[in-house]
Amino acid sequence: MSEFPDYLDVDYTDGEGESPEDYPSLEHKIEKAIEVTRQGLEEYENPAIMWTGGKDSTLTLYFVKEVAERHDLEVPPAVFLDHYQHFDELMDFVDHWAEEWDLDVHFARNEDVGAYVDEHNLTPGDDIEISALNEQNQHHIRNILEYEEDTFPFLLDTYVGNHLLKTVPLNNAIEELNIDGIISGVRWDEQEARADETFFSPRHDPDIYPPHDRIQPILQFDERAVWDCFWHYVVPDTVEGYPEEGYVPEDADDLPNGLTQDDIPVSPKYFAGFRSLGSEVSTEKSEEEPAWHQDLENTTERAGRAQDKEDLMERLRDLGYM
User: Fold this and answer.
1) pLDDT score, position 313
2) pLDDT tens digits, residue range 149-170?
3) Which terminus of the chain has a lower count of CB atoms within 10 Å, N or C?
4) What b/e string do you get for 139-158 counting C-beta neighbours within 10 Å, with b at 16 or more?
5) Is Mitochondrion one of the keywords (predicted)?
6) How many other C-beta atoms are found inside a 10 Å radius of the C-beta of residue 181?
């Protein structure tokens, strides 16, 4: 593999063949996350954090903020992919915590698709005329996706929709901001297509995406460990008045010391029973109780997500999806 770029010295095999079980305690998982995060912040000249407002990317953001403060490093900008189909509560959450944590957030959008949607007053599921889109989008649809129909539905969790609404604006942001490393919150156990990822993962083919690396500090976390880390580290460390020894609330009405849901850097959708956050029109809650009180070990985390996209994940990842 050619050097990309020549100032980097990272091990692209780190994590190869491993699983969450190779990091048996929460402390082991945290120690590795800190190590990967620090190397990412020190090695890359223009890193950025992929932040969705979900639990995994917010946990990753926590590690970035902690490592940056501890080692006198800069907190890089965050890239938020606005696919036009987010829950309103999630957008409010991102706006609130971006201000609270003084984050520089770049909102990446496929503005050509967005303009078409606005002009024609579309709602999710309505058809988009491919011939009306710009040259870049038509190139991706016809030449990269090899999609032959005249229209595609305005839906995030489909092959064309996901690529145009997430991957294309992500690649544009990488190019526009000259990003050499994307710090991402993907996990090995979350999905089969991600099980073979490494902590530093190359994306160097210029025919597919602007060459860059993926820096993935929380691969080793399983879903239970994510929530354990939130209630025992993330929330106590970032919320004034939260018990330092940690406290796991039963629900939004069970927060300690007069704190409310708005004071906690956990999306209200998780309090409401969602375990994975995707499109507003294709994601359903798993149960009524908060995500961390559900049977995480014996049920599927992404069961509430549209399965069409889940089944296409491997192909989408080959094209640059997270």
Assistant:
1) 59
2) 999 999 988 889 999 999 999 9
3) N
4) ebbeeebeeeeeebebbbbb
5) no
6) 25
Rounded CA-CA distance 104/101 in Å is: 9
Can you tell me the distance from the alpha carbon of 76 to that of 36, in angstroms, rounded to the nearest whole number?
15
pLDDT for position 317: 60
Read off the tokens for 40.
Answer: 């990412």
Fold observed for domain 20-222: Rossmann fold (3.40.50)
- Please state the pTM of the whole predicted model: 0.93
- Listed residue (111, 108, 113) closest to 130, CA to CA: 113
Q: How many C-beta atoms lie closer than 10 Å to residue 34's C-beta?
A: 16
The predicted model gives 243-253 an average pLDDT of 96
**Hey, what amino acid is at 178?**
N
Tokens of 281: 């029109």
DSSP labels, 45-78: SSEEEE--SSHHHHHHHHHHHHHHHHTT-PPPPE
Q: Pseudo-torsion of CA 143, 149, 153, 158, nearest 10°?
A: -50
Number of neighbouring beta carbons within 10 Å of residue 96: 13
